[in-house]
Amino acid sequence: MAKASIGKGKVAFVFPGQGSQKVGMGREAFDAGGVAREVFDAADAALGEKLSTLCFEGPDETLRLTMNTQPAILTTSIALFRGLGAKPDMVAGHSLGEYSAHVAVGTLAFGDAVKLVRSRGEYMQAAVPVGQGAMAAILKLDREVLEAICRETPGVVEPVNYNAPGQIVIAGEAAAVAAASEKCNAAGGRAMPLPVSAPFHCKLMKPAEEKLAARMVSVAFSPPSKPVYVNVDAVPVTIGAFAKDALIRQVSRSVRWDESVLRMVEDGVTLFVEIGVGNALCGMIKRTTEAAATVSVQKPADYEAALAAIAETRA
């Protein structure tokens, strides 16, 4: 439910990334029929397999494989977006969610995007053998302190997700992440290891970035109908070639989410609508700014409240 409106303005749609998946995702949207069901059918056709069944029934360990998680989250987000039937003033997505954002504003065709993120997941998993990389969330530590710890720690360890003030994710070689985590705890932060299969968004992902760049050569990118605030630069793009470049660079570089949120607020956003599984982005946004309201769309039952909040913001 949206909190009380704090002013008229623009509406941003934002889309979650990997980590929000769960068995049963999108089932209610699919059961509602119409455009949402068409999205799941299109994903099954594009991949030549029943992604919809995996989303709805699992098993969880198969859904959590990166090559499956990424198209599953994209498909669920776009099904809910099309079911909602509203248009944003601008969009953004967290990591993988940037692909959902581009589909929403026409940069990428859905069929192309779902196949592209399947490949992206495969490339990212193959870049670093399981067990050699790691990620950890660092809470309650200033970014300058965290960045200094990463620089001073031997091996590869980098801040990779700037989610919100006091919530930054680090990634890299397993030993280096463990050592940096200990230093963060000693400095007054709180390190929480993340259950991931690869160290996303760090320099160890460079091989995946190169493969994705080659894969994208054959994919059409159109000018987005609305600005897309991209992770790597925290700025809006409105040119297809720039969108492609940002998606390629994103693989081995940091997600600057908090900066993206603040930039959208500077550009007039007073309502963020999170579309997809979970409400993690709403939480991050609330910790980043008090200048905008949030509303989450996770199932068709959420459409009415979201549409009312959108109408109120634009009234």
Overall, the morphology is globular
Structural class: alpha/beta
Strand coverage percent: 15-25%
Q: What percent of the residues sit in helical stretches (DSSP H or I)?
A: 40-55%
| Lateral strand order in the biggest sheet | 8-7-2-1-9-10
Largest sheet: 6 strands, mixed
Element pattern in H and E: EHHHHHEHHEHEEHEHEEHHEHEH
Low-confidence stretches: 1-5
Measured between the Cα atoms of the first and last residue, the distance is 18 Å
Count of runs of 4 or more consecutive helical residues: 14
Q: Indicate the mean pLDDT.
A: 95
Task: Specify Rg, calculated over alpha carbons.
Answer: 19 Å
Give the tally of β-strands.
10
What does this 3D model show about the protein?
- The strands form two sheets. The chain has a six-stranded mixed β-sheet with strand order 8-7-2-1-9-10, with helices on both faces. It has a four-stranded antiparallel β-sheet with strand order 4-5-3-6.
- Helix 7 (110-127) runs antiparallel to helix 10 (206-216) and helix 10 (206-216) packs antiparallel against helix 11 (240-250).
- The protein is globular, with a radius of gyration of 19 Å.
- The protein is 48% helix and 17% strand.
- The protein has 315 residues and is of the alpha/beta class.
- A hairpin with a 2-residue loop joins strand 4 and strand 5.
